[in-house]
Design a protein that fits this description.
The chain has nine helices and 14 strands. By secondary structure, the chain is α/β, with parallel strands linked by helices. An eight-stranded mixed sheet has the order 4-1-9-10-11-12-13-14, sandwiched between helices. Helix 1 crosses helix 7 (about 270-285), helix 7 (about 270-285) runs antiparallel to helix 8 and helix 8 packs across helix 9 (about 315-335). The longest helix is centred in the last third of the chain and has 18 residues, at about 315-335. The radius of gyration is 19 Å and the shape is globular. It starts with 9 loop residues before the first strand and ends with a helix.
């Protein structure tokens, strides 16, 4: 446990792969475009950027190829206030890419991944900085189900990071974040089970929960939440419900509900990562109504992200505070 009065160097430490996103401008198809817009995006670094822009001290760990593409990624993340000094650099392997073809109804958006054999997929437990994982150095480790899906080395590194964080007395949050293109349902459930079991805070989309745990498509959010709480009784569980908001419960606690904040959607990719950033921020405020505060911040930051193109939540803290307080005013009017 952290010594009384000792201030942590970081509020949150996270670990994962960040890729370059290549997108044809003006809703063009990939086969017709002559140029591609470049964005930086990865679930864990998206969340790290959101937390840093809310004023927390954040470090992001990864393994990156030391070339212009890798340096572009690290420089972009660091430019938003995230500490990237613990990144492991290598002259081997490559940076992961993904191509986003944006569409409008009736044509949907589509994604093509090109991330096999990336530097991040080959991160090793020995790449984790032992000097970072010490008591009092950070408050919380945040991971997602994407990193262990990258391959056996990344999975081993993920498990080792949790072990080190727990030994250092940190909290641990885990976002299930299932990616069907990376691993099959059964492999994902088995791979994520020990990570979820170790979590103090567990985040899961309703659809992923139904799929991974063989729940009926008609299973209600309350029933899915109860199933996760039964499986992982030590965790505060948060279930995201898309346009229906989110619900959560603390161990042996009552269910807390949160609706979405209205937003004109510009960039949906990264919305879940932005929600995680707001949720973690509110959770770490450690207020008496901890879960309700966390859910409200999650909804506010996600709404702001939807109004921003690209993957990164380039949010303004004052705007987030205004949305959170707006939610309080609305509830006050409804309860009069």
């Amino acid at each position: 446990m952290q010594e009384p009065g000792l201030q942590p160097v970081y509020d949150v430490v996270t670990l994962g792969e960040t890729m370059l996103r290549l997108t044809p401008p003006n809703l063009k198809r990939l086969e017709q475009t002559q140029s591609l817009d470049i964005e930086v995006g990865g679930s864990e670094s998206n969340t790290a950027v959101g937390l840093a822009r809310l004023g927390l001290k954040v470090a992001w760990l990864s393994r990156m190829t030391d070339n212009p593409l890798g340096r572009l990624i690290a420089r972009t993340i660091a430019g938003h206030g995230v500490d990237t000094s613990y990144v492991t650099w290598t002259d081997q392997d490559r940076i992961g890419l993904y191509f986003l073809e944006e569409g409008r109804a009736p044509r949907g958006s589509s994604i093509i991944y090109d991330r096999a054999n990336s530097a991040a997929s080959r991160i090793q437990p020995t790449d984790l900085p032992s000097e970072l994982f010490t008591a009092g150095k950070a408050r919380l480790l945040h991971l997602t189900g994407i990193t262990p899906a990258l391959g056996p080395q990344a999975a081993a590194t993920t498990r080792h990071a949790i072990k080190l964080a727990k030994e250092a007395g940190w909290l641990f949050s885990f976002d299930l974040n299932y990616r069907s293109r990376l691993w099959a349902t059964l492999a994902a459930r088995e791979g994520c089970e020990p990570l979820a079991a170790a979590a103090d805070l567990l985040i899961a989309p309703l659809g992923d929960t139904r799929l991974l745990y063989n729940l009926s498509p008609e299973c209600t959010p309350v029933e899915a939440l109860a199933e996760l709480s039964r499986r992982f009784p030590r965790a505060t569980v948060v279930l995201t419900l898309g346009k229906q908001g989110a619900i959560g419960c603390e161990p042996q606690g009552k269910i807390v509900r949160q609706s979405v904040f209205r937003a004109e959607e510009v960039g949906r990719i990264g919305g879940g990562d932005a929600f995680a950033a707001g949720l973690l921020y509110g959770y770490l405020l450690n207020q008496p109504d901890r879960l309700a505060t966390a859910l409200r911040w999650g909804a506010a930051v996600a709404a702001l992200k939807y109004s921003i193109p690209g993957d990164l939540p380039v949010i303004d803290k004052a705007e987030a505070i205004a949305l959170v307080e707006q939610g309080d005013r609305i509830r006050a009017r409804l309860t009069r």
